[in-house]
């Protein structure tokens, strides 16, 4: 049996209803009570609004996972770059010390 899919409500209405549930949830004894009250104001069923909320939560989780994986890749690249720069600085520091010592060991010209 195929689930009925209706696009009866605009994206703006859905987003506003979801935002209202999130903003006013603390005023109700439970999330479900908030959903029931707010869904009545928008003329949709409580189950419809609950599904919209869950879908939005899943979408946000996916976005966060995607962002965190790209962040972790960026962090790894930056850590690798820091290691390489520290190695280069160490080489330059040793070379500088070597040439400074060689300059001191050179006989003085008059």
From TrEMBL:
The keyword Coiled coil applies. Residues 68-95 form a coiled coil. GO terms for biological process: DNA transposition. GO terms for molecular function: DNA binding; transposase activity. Keywords: Coiled coil. InterPro entries: Homeodomain-like_sf (IPR009057), Transposase_8 (IPR002514), WH-like_DNA-bd_sf (IPR036388). Belongs to the transposase 8 family. This is Transposase IS3/IS911 family protein.
């Amino acid at each position: 049996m195929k689930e009925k899919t209706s696009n009866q409500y605009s994206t703006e209405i859905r987003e506003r209803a979801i935002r209202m549930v999130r903003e006013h949830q603390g005023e109700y004894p439970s999330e479900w009570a908030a959903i029931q009250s707010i869904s009545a104001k928008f003329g949709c069923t409580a189950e419809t609004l609950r599904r919209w909320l869950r879908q939005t939560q899943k979408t946000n989780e996916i976005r966060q996972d995607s962002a965190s994986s790209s962040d972790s890749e960026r962090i790894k690249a930056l850590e690798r770059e820091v290691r390489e720069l520290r190695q280069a600085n160490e080489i330059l520091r040793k070379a500088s010390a070597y040439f400074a010592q060689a300059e001191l060991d050179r006989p003085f010209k008059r």
